[in-house]
Amino acid sequence: MSDPPVLSVEDLTVTIGTRRGPARAVAGVDWSVRAGETLALVGESGSGKSMSVLAATGLAPRAARVAGRVHLLGTELTALSPDRRRRMRGRHVGFVFQDPMTSLNPVLTVGRQIGEAAEEHLGLTRRAARDRAVELLDLVGIPSAAGRVDAYPHQLSGGMRQRVVIAMALVCEPDLLIADEPTTALDVTTQAQIVELVADLQRRLGTAVVWITHDLGVVAGTADAVAVMYGGRIVEQGPVDAVFARPAHPYTVALLAARPEPGAGGGDLATIPGSPPSPLDLPAGCAFWPRCPVRGDARCAHELPPLVPVSVDHHARTFYRPPREDA
């Protein structure tokens, strides 16, 4: 029997109140991630991937109404008080966000910022927390960690600041690491270093990772499973190799076609015409229908397609019902 998920989300729905009415940011989402596994959430901006994770971990905006079931290490987070949820999240979940400068306090040394979490959640003394900070800075590959522990964020490069944020996320040795577009603001070489760092730390610590990204190259190189989101729903999910080899939803096909290929020359990249739908005005059927290059089934415009099996653990939300690989 496989180990239970570190984090599981069932029928998660997030509705945000706005002056123009309710906006459905996430609708009926299910996913899970196990220890040592990386799940990639993929989609364009506004697809609901980040909001689903924020809502699952209790960090959704105050105006959001969250429904569904979320279990962290077997405990239903939605049943906990805000204070107990905060403590459980702080002890068991680490976050790495897109821009390290928004995660770091410019007037505190990096060692102090790492140490604060160790004092709060592990009960360490200030001296022990400083030692822990040096240990973590060394773990994430910052040279001369004992000297860098007293540096301020502005004294470090972008890549080093992101390593500091990763060290902060790992201070409590979390069971789950959530990486939300952590390499977008970095140059290509530093991006590759950060991706490899997270993968190496995962191998050494056995941490579950949820990687939120629009970069399919990162997904191909790091993830075990992928969930493709559009209009607040998952439109395709399964093992990375299966989804990349045999994409079944037209949106997944379009995303893969728009991916730059090494050695392909300087020609124009494929694009997806149109724009993602507004969560204030989602179509009744498939949200991708107005942009879909296929549009062969009129039901797509007014009826929500079901998730149908493509192969083992590989499903797509479509009426086209591709023949099963294992049929």
Please characterize this protein's 3D structure.
The protein has 327 residues and is of the alpha/beta class. It has 11 helices and 12 strands. It has a domain of 211 residues: Rossmann fold (3-Layer(aba) Sandwich), CATH 3.40.50. Helices cover 32% and strands 24% of the residues.
Report the span from N to C terminus: 25 Å
The proportion of strand residues reads: 15-25%
Q: In angstroms, what is the radius of gyration?
A: 21 Å
H and E string: EEEHEEHEHHHHHEHEHEEHHEE
CATH topology of the domain at 7-97 and 177-262 and 269-289 and 305-317: Rossmann fold
Regions with pLDDT < 50 over 5+ consecutive residues?
none
Fraction of residues in H or I helices: 25-40%
Per CATH, which architecture of the domain at 7-97 and 177-262 and 269-289 and 305-317?
3-Layer(aba) Sandwich
Mean pLDDT level: 89
Number of E-type strands: 12
Strand order of the largest sheet: 6-7-8-3-9-10-12-11
Query: How would you classify the helix and strand content by structural class?
Result: alpha/beta
Tell me the name of the CATH class of the domain at 7-97 and 177-262 and 269-289 and 305-317: Alpha Beta
Give the CATH H-level superfamily of the domain at 7-97 and 177-262 and 269-289 and 305-317: P-loop containing nucleotide triphosphate hydrolases
How many separate helices?
11
Shape: globular
Largest sheet: 8 strands, mixed
